Amino acid sequence: MSIRLPIFRKRKQKENDQSTLTNIPRHVAIIMDGNGRWAKRRGLPRAAGHKEGMETVKKVVRQAVEYNIEALTLYAFSTENWKRPKTEVEFIMKLPGEFLHTYLPELIDNNVQVRTIGDLTPLPEHTKEAIHKAIEQTSTNTGLVLNFALNYGSRAEITGAVNQIVKEVADGQLSPNEITEDYISARLYTSHVRDPDLLIRTSGEVRISNFLLWQIAYSEFYFTDVFWPDFDEEQFKLALLEYQNRKRRYGGI
Ligand code: IPE
Ligand code: IPE
Ligand code: MG
Question: pTM score > 0.90 for this model?
Protein backbone atom coordinates (compact mmCIF):
# COMPACT_ATOMS: atom_id res chain seq x y z
CA MET A 1 0.00 0.00 0.00
CA SER A 2 1.36 3.43 -0.80
CA ILE A 3 0.12 6.48 1.07
CA ARG A 4 0.90 10.03 0.00
CA LEU A 5 1.26 12.50 2.79
CA PRO A 6 2.38 16.09 2.38
CA ILE A 7 5.30 16.99 4.63
CA PHE A 8 5.74 20.70 4.05
CA ARG A 9 2.17 21.53 3.21
CA LYS A 10 2.86 25.00 1.85
CA ARG A 11 5.42 23.90 -0.72
CA LYS A 12 4.20 22.98 -4.19
CA GLN A 13 4.38 19.26 -4.73
CA LYS A 14 6.20 17.82 -7.73
CA GLU A 15 6.73 14.31 -8.98
CA ASN A 16 9.31 12.62 -6.69
CA ASP A 17 9.35 15.73 -4.55
CA GLN A 18 11.42 15.17 -1.39
CA SER A 19 8.62 16.71 0.64
CA THR A 20 6.19 13.91 -0.17
CA LEU A 21 6.12 10.67 1.72
CA THR A 22 5.02 7.87 -0.53
CA ASN A 23 6.29 4.85 1.34
CA ILE A 24 5.55 4.88 5.04
CA PRO A 25 7.26 2.18 7.12
CA ARG A 26 4.63 -0.06 8.70
CA HIS A 27 6.63 -0.74 11.85
CA VAL A 28 9.10 1.79 13.29
CA ALA A 29 11.33 0.88 16.24
CA ILE A 30 13.25 3.54 18.14
CA ILE A 31 16.20 3.39 20.52
CA MET A 32 15.43 6.55 22.47
CA ASP A 33 18.93 7.55 23.58
CA GLY A 34 20.64 10.70 24.85
CA ASN A 35 18.41 11.91 27.67
CA GLY A 36 21.32 12.10 30.12
CA ARG A 37 23.63 13.99 27.77
CA TRP A 38 20.84 16.38 26.81
CA ALA A 39 20.42 17.27 30.47
CA LYS A 40 24.16 17.49 31.13
CA ARG A 41 24.59 19.99 28.28
CA ARG A 42 22.08 22.19 30.04
CA GLY A 43 23.62 21.77 33.50
CA LEU A 44 20.52 19.82 34.59
CA PRO A 45 20.23 16.52 36.44
CA ARG A 46 19.82 13.42 34.23
CA ALA A 47 16.25 13.09 35.48
CA ALA A 48 15.35 16.31 33.64
CA GLY A 49 16.44 14.63 30.41
CA HIS A 50 14.24 11.61 31.06
CA LYS A 51 11.29 13.89 31.77
CA GLU A 52 11.81 15.88 28.60
CA GLY A 53 12.23 12.61 26.71
CA MET A 54 8.72 11.70 27.77
CA GLU A 55 7.44 14.77 25.90
CA THR A 56 9.20 13.51 22.78
CA VAL A 57 7.38 10.19 23.15
CA LYS A 58 4.05 12.04 23.01
CA LYS A 59 5.07 13.96 19.87
CA VAL A 60 6.31 10.86 18.08
CA VAL A 61 3.20 8.85 18.98
CA ARG A 62 0.93 11.63 17.67
CA GLN A 63 2.86 11.72 14.45
CA ALA A 64 2.81 7.93 14.07
CA VAL A 65 -0.98 8.06 14.41
CA GLU A 66 -1.18 10.85 11.85
CA TYR A 67 0.92 8.87 9.35
CA ASN A 68 -1.07 5.66 9.90
CA ILE A 69 2.04 3.79 10.98
CA GLU A 70 0.89 0.34 12.15
CA ALA A 71 3.35 -0.23 14.98
CA LEU A 72 5.80 1.86 16.99
CA THR A 73 8.21 0.10 19.33
CA LEU A 74 10.03 2.29 21.82
CA TYR A 75 13.07 1.08 23.80
CA ALA A 76 12.42 2.59 27.23
CA PHE A 77 14.45 0.39 29.60
CA SER A 78 16.88 -2.40 28.80
CA THR A 79 17.83 -5.47 30.82
CA GLU A 80 21.23 -3.77 31.21
CA ASN A 81 19.81 -0.47 32.52
CA TRP A 82 19.49 -1.97 36.02
CA LYS A 83 23.23 -1.23 36.29
CA ARG A 84 22.44 2.48 36.71
CA PRO A 85 22.31 4.19 40.12
CA LYS A 86 19.26 3.13 42.13
CA THR A 87 17.90 6.70 42.22
CA GLU A 88 17.95 6.96 38.43
CA VAL A 89 16.26 3.56 37.99
CA GLU A 90 13.60 4.58 40.52
CA PHE A 91 13.02 7.82 38.66
CA ILE A 92 12.69 6.07 35.30
CA MET A 93 10.22 3.57 36.81
CA LYS A 94 7.93 6.45 37.83
CA LEU A 95 7.70 7.73 34.27
CA PRO A 96 5.23 5.20 32.81
CA GLY A 97 2.74 6.07 35.56
CA GLU A 98 3.23 9.80 35.03
CA PHE A 99 3.07 9.49 31.27
CA LEU A 100 -0.08 7.39 31.26
CA HIS A 101 -1.80 9.44 33.95
CA THR A 102 -1.89 12.45 31.63
CA TYR A 103 -1.73 10.81 28.22
CA LEU A 104 -3.88 7.66 28.40
CA PRO A 105 -7.14 9.48 27.47
CA GLU A 106 -5.51 10.80 24.30
CA LEU A 107 -4.19 7.33 23.45
CA ILE A 108 -7.69 5.94 23.87
CA ASP A 109 -9.15 8.74 21.72
CA ASN A 110 -6.60 8.01 19.02
CA ASN A 111 -7.44 4.30 18.91
CA VAL A 112 -3.89 3.37 20.05
CA GLN A 113 -3.25 -0.10 21.49
CA VAL A 114 -0.66 -0.07 24.26
CA ARG A 115 1.50 -3.19 24.53
CA THR A 116 4.83 -4.07 26.10
CA ILE A 117 7.77 -6.25 25.21
CA GLY A 118 10.19 -7.47 27.87
CA ASP A 119 9.88 -9.12 31.27
CA LEU A 120 7.76 -6.90 33.49
CA THR A 121 8.10 -9.19 36.54
CA PRO A 122 10.92 -7.27 38.32
CA LEU A 123 9.32 -3.83 37.76
CA PRO A 124 7.93 -1.98 40.80
CA GLU A 125 4.24 -2.67 41.49
CA HIS A 126 3.18 0.94 40.78
CA THR A 127 4.86 0.79 37.35
CA LYS A 128 3.19 -2.52 36.49
CA GLU A 129 -0.21 -1.25 37.65
CA ALA A 130 -0.06 1.81 35.41
CA ILE A 131 1.01 -0.25 32.43
CA HIS A 132 -1.57 -2.99 32.94
CA LYS A 133 -4.29 -0.38 33.20
CA ALA A 134 -3.21 1.17 29.90
CA ILE A 135 -3.01 -2.23 28.19
CA GLU A 136 -6.48 -3.16 29.45
CA GLN A 137 -8.12 0.14 28.55
CA THR A 138 -6.72 0.10 25.02
CA SER A 139 -7.05 -3.63 24.33
CA THR A 140 -10.04 -3.28 21.99
CA ASN A 141 -8.46 -0.43 20.02
CA THR A 142 -7.51 -1.17 16.43
CA GLY A 143 -5.10 1.63 15.49
CA LEU A 144 -1.40 2.12 16.16
CA VAL A 145 0.23 -0.65 18.21
CA LEU A 146 2.43 1.18 20.70
CA ASN A 147 4.95 -1.24 22.17
CA PHE A 148 7.00 -0.11 25.13
CA ALA A 149 10.16 -2.17 25.55
CA LEU A 150 10.57 -2.38 29.31
CA ASN A 151 13.20 -4.53 30.95
CA TYR A 152 13.72 -5.73 27.41
CA GLY A 153 16.84 -7.52 26.22
CA SER A 154 17.02 -9.37 22.95
CA ARG A 155 19.34 -12.11 24.21
CA ALA A 156 17.07 -12.75 27.21
CA GLU A 157 14.12 -12.90 24.80
CA ILE A 158 15.81 -15.41 22.50
CA THR A 159 17.03 -17.46 25.47
CA GLY A 160 13.47 -17.59 26.79
CA ALA A 161 12.17 -18.78 23.43
CA VAL A 162 14.89 -21.46 23.19
CA ASN A 163 14.04 -22.71 26.69
CA GLN A 164 10.36 -22.90 25.83
CA ILE A 165 11.00 -24.76 22.59
CA VAL A 166 13.42 -27.23 24.21
CA LYS A 167 10.81 -27.97 26.85
CA GLU A 168 8.15 -28.62 24.20
CA VAL A 169 10.51 -31.05 22.46
CA ALA A 170 11.46 -32.76 25.74
CA ASP A 171 7.76 -33.13 26.62
CA GLY A 172 7.12 -34.75 23.24
CA GLN A 173 4.76 -31.94 22.09
CA LEU A 174 7.05 -30.74 19.33
CA SER A 175 9.28 -32.52 16.86
CA PRO A 176 12.64 -30.84 16.00
CA ASN A 177 11.73 -30.54 12.32
CA GLU A 178 8.80 -28.30 13.28
CA ILE A 179 11.22 -25.64 14.56
CA THR A 180 11.06 -23.10 11.74
CA GLU A 181 11.92 -19.39 11.63
CA ASP A 182 8.22 -18.59 11.96
CA TYR A 183 7.94 -20.90 14.94
CA ILE A 184 10.77 -19.06 16.68
CA SER A 185 9.36 -15.61 15.77
CA ALA A 186 6.03 -16.60 17.28
CA ARG A 187 7.75 -17.31 20.61
CA LEU A 188 9.33 -13.86 20.90
CA TYR A 189 7.77 -10.90 22.74
CA THR A 190 7.04 -9.32 19.36
CA SER A 191 4.79 -12.10 18.04
CA HIS A 192 1.92 -9.59 17.63
CA VAL A 193 3.80 -7.30 15.20
CA ARG A 194 5.68 -7.64 11.93
CA ASP A 195 9.44 -7.09 11.96
CA PRO A 196 10.47 -3.40 12.05
CA ASP A 197 10.84 -1.76 8.65
CA LEU A 198 12.80 1.13 10.11
CA LEU A 199 15.01 1.29 13.20
CA ILE A 200 15.96 4.74 14.49
CA ARG A 201 18.61 5.48 17.12
CA THR A 202 19.14 8.96 18.47
CA SER A 203 22.15 10.52 20.29
CA GLY A 204 24.97 9.63 17.91
CA GLU A 205 25.61 6.14 19.25
CA VAL A 206 25.90 3.65 16.41
CA ARG A 207 25.05 0.37 18.11
CA ILE A 208 22.07 -1.84 18.79
CA SER A 209 22.44 -2.30 22.57
CA ASN A 210 20.63 -5.66 22.68
CA PHE A 211 17.48 -4.43 20.92
CA LEU A 212 15.41 -6.71 18.63
CA LEU A 213 18.42 -8.66 17.32
CA TRP A 214 16.31 -11.31 15.60
CA GLN A 215 13.64 -8.93 14.32
CA ILE A 216 15.93 -6.36 12.62
CA ALA A 217 17.49 -8.87 10.22
CA TYR A 218 16.24 -6.79 7.26
CA SER A 219 15.29 -3.47 8.87
CA GLU A 220 16.57 -0.18 7.52
CA PHE A 221 18.72 1.72 10.05
CA TYR A 222 18.66 5.45 10.67
CA PHE A 223 21.14 7.00 13.09
CA THR A 224 21.00 10.64 14.11
CA ASP A 225 23.18 12.74 16.43
CA VAL A 226 20.10 14.47 17.84
CA PHE A 227 19.48 13.67 21.53
CA TRP A 228 16.10 12.07 22.23
CA PRO A 229 14.58 15.14 23.99
CA ASP A 230 15.38 17.20 20.86
CA PHE A 231 13.94 14.63 18.45
CA ASP A 232 10.82 16.44 17.24
CA GLU A 233 8.28 16.21 14.41
CA GLU A 234 10.78 17.59 11.91
CA GLN A 235 13.41 15.05 12.93
CA PHE A 236 10.95 12.18 12.63
CA LYS A 237 9.98 13.40 9.16
CA LEU A 238 13.66 13.45 8.16
CA ALA A 239 13.98 9.81 9.19
CA LEU A 240 10.86 8.89 7.21
CA LEU A 241 12.11 10.83 4.18
CA GLU A 242 15.43 9.01 4.33
CA TYR A 243 13.52 5.73 4.42
CA GLN A 244 11.79 6.70 1.15
CA ASN A 245 15.08 6.44 -0.71
CA ARG A 246 16.14 3.08 0.62
CA LYS A 247 16.01 0.15 -1.78
CA ARG A 248 15.13 -2.95 0.17
CA ARG A 249 16.41 -5.99 -1.66
CA TYR A 250 16.23 -8.77 0.93
CA GLY A 251 19.12 -10.49 -0.80
CA GLY A 252 17.57 -10.18 -4.25
CA ILE A 253 18.59 -7.83 -7.05
C1 IPE B 1 18.07 6.93 27.16
O2 IPE B 1 18.88 7.98 27.54
C3 IPE B 1 17.07 6.54 28.21
C4 IPE B 1 17.34 5.25 28.87
C5 IPE B 1 18.29 4.42 28.56
C6 IPE B 1 16.46 4.90 29.95
P7 IPE B 1 20.16 7.76 28.43
O8 IPE B 1 19.77 7.83 29.85
O9 IPE B 1 20.87 6.52 28.03
O10 IPE B 1 21.02 9.03 28.03
P11 IPE B 1 22.58 9.10 27.79
O12 IPE B 1 22.90 8.06 26.77
O13 IPE B 1 23.23 8.82 29.10
O14 IPE B 1 22.81 10.48 27.30
C1 IPE C 1 19.78 1.72 25.10
O2 IPE C 1 20.40 2.87 25.58
C3 IPE C 1 18.58 1.42 25.94
C4 IPE C 1 17.48 2.36 25.88
C5 IPE C 1 17.41 3.40 25.08
C6 IPE C 1 16.39 2.10 26.77
P7 IPE C 1 21.63 2.81 26.57
O8 IPE C 1 22.03 4.20 26.84
O9 IPE C 1 21.31 1.96 27.74
O10 IPE C 1 22.71 2.04 25.68
P11 IPE C 1 24.29 1.97 25.81
O12 IPE C 1 24.61 1.60 27.23
O13 IPE C 1 24.82 3.32 25.47
O14 IPE C 1 24.69 0.94 24.81
MG1 MG D 1 22.28 6.13 26.67
Answer: yes
